[in-house]
Design a protein that fits this description.
Glycosyltransferase; 12 helices; two-stranded antiparallel sheet; mainly alpha
């Protein structure tokens, strides 16, 4: 479905009053970000996303991935529910997640649940981005709704993220967050996924849970992505050894593809809109402009050659916001939200609209 564009634009044009996104320094005692008002036109996009991708029992369904539910999707859904002030949906997502993914001996979540498999969770390894968004949402909800149990759960997850997923670069220059507690250490270093790093969430969660290592991870993430952007687009995966940052083993993608699409979005959402990785992403997209509704989704990392395009609107939304935010101009080419696209681009699309409302009111869609 496509939202009525005129009503949508009228609501976004008044978005300056909602620009509540904090900068890099986060006050642990600050009030939670204001919800998008119940009568705001963007609420229709949230309701469409909720109806299309959340099952009645409270699981976010990725139909493109065997109908799976992931800790990532649950965390994304809970963070979005808070942005729209939807406490009922937040509680449904939380309840399902605690019942079905909180299966590990620590506070972290199993990364995937499959509806047609028995057991539904075959691999209890975590995914650190899912844990990060989930704990970030809980910390925000604790303040918004005044629920101490949410705060306690966020603190437990943050502590175990630091204990199990935070490592120091071999040269001691930065702390970074591994993709999971298991499986990404090598004999000479470790494997990293830059798209798992959301600096704002890291800093907010660090302040809310007294885990400064997470704030150091945010600083390290921005620094490392600057280094990567100096030699091309930020890739989906990298390997780190004592010799520096290199491309990963063959079983990991070295392209800048569907995973790395989140890198510029999360940087812009974190108010790092002039970051070199954002500039590089924008320049690559502008060079690959086709003049139609296709968006480049996979680039050869070093050359910038486009390997794959998609017509899903969410991918165009990300590039439109990052271009506008980086240039600090008025008006953007963010397309109207629609639910004809799969879960992943639809979720990036809705996140893009929230990031625009919260931080870039001048980038109203035109």
């Amino acid at each position: 479905m496509t939202l009525i564009r005129r009503t949508f634009l009228q609501g976004l044009a008044g978005a300056a009053a909602l620009a509540t996104l904090p900068g890099a320094a986060v006050n642990a005692q600050a009030a939670p970000a204001a919800s998008i008002p119940a009568d705001h036109p963007l609420q229709a996009a949230w309701q469409a996303w909720r109806s299309s991708y959340i099952a009645p029992e409270g699981r976010v369904v990725d139909s493109f991935q065997q109908g799976a539910s992931h800790s990532e999707g649950q965390g994304y859904g809970m963070a979005l529910a808070l942005s729209f002030g939807d406490g009922e949906t937040f509680r449904r997502l939380y309840s399902w997640t605690e019942t079905n993914l909180a299966l590990r001996p620590d506070a972290l979540l199993a990364w995937r649940w499959l509806p047609d498999a028995l057991p539904h969770v075959a691999d209890r390894n975590n995914a650190s981005d899912g844990d990060l968004f989930y704990a970030w949402a809980l910390a925000r909800a604790a303040r918004l709704f005044g629920v101490p149990d949410y705060a306690a759960r966020a603190r437990a997850i943050a502590a175990d993220l630091v204990a199990s997923c935070v490592v120091t670069m071999p040269d001691g220059s930065a702390d970074v967050m591994l993709p999971a507690a298991s499986g990404f250490l090598t004999g000479t270093g470790f494997i990293l996924n830059p798209s798992y790093w959301m600096p704002r969430a890291m800093r907010d969660l660090a302040a809310a849970t007294d885990q400064p290592a997470l704030a150091r991870c945010a600083d390290g993430a921005e620094r490392l992505m600057s280094q990567m952007a100096a030699n091309g687009l930020v890739p989906d995966w990298v390997e780190v050894t004592a010799d520096g940052i290199t491309l990963p083993p063959a079983r990991f993608s070295a392209n800048s593809g569907y995973e790395a699409l989140r890198v510029p979005l999360f940087l812009v959402w974190s108010r790092a809109n002039t970051h070199p990785a954002v500039r590089g992403f924008t320049e690559a997209h502008q060079a690959a402009e086709t003049g139609d509704l296709r968006a480049p989704t996979v680039f050869e990392r070093g050359t910038g050659r486009v390997l794959e395009y998609s017509t899903h609107a969410g991918y165009r939304a990300v590039s439109a916001l990052t271009a506008c935010a980086g240039a600090q101009r008025a008006g953007s080419a963010i397309p109207p939200f629609d639910t004809t696209q799969p879960y992943y681009p639809a979720t990036l699309h809705l996140m893009t609209l929230v990031a625009q409302i919260e931080g870039y009111p001048r980038c109203v869609p035109l």
